[in-house]
Amino acid sequence: MEWPNISVIIPTYNRPEILRECFAGLLCNLDYSGKVSYYVGNDGDDITWIPKSGGSLNLDNITILDGPRRVGKPHQGLGANLNMLLGSTPDDFIIQMDDDHILQKPLLLDKHVTFLMNNQKAGWIRLMGIANHDYTADLRGDYWFVRWDSVG
Known about the structure:
Layout: E1 6-12, H1 16-29, E2 30-31, E3 36-42, E4 62-66, H2 77-88, E5 93-96, E6 107-108, H3 110-118, E7 137-140, E8 143-146
Parallel strand pairs: 1-3, 1-5, 2-6, 3-4
Antiparallel strand pairs: 7-8
């Protein structure tokens, strides 16, 4: 099987040390048989700490993009940054991480990608909690399918 490329998108704003921890967790715990590229939406100052050669975070597949700089405008900063990142990746399979999401255990992506490739109605998989979202969903195997007409 040829595995599709995956993009990991990470919005950030002036938290380079937390972003460094995020990448350390990804490098140690993200497990995928295909190619993974990283896109950072930088809505803050320059992130010069990411080494392009040598060092423990040697990632040649990081693309740092200037964010839309809508920080301080209600409900626009993070959403605008994520929208910019979504529009910047050529890949169909995308993982959204926030800069303060630190993977502490292995995340095995092959099974999730296989599921999405074989279930066109799935669309996306949410790996974070969904408490308090008032969804009604049906459990099919290992995955919940949201009844979108129930969201209100």
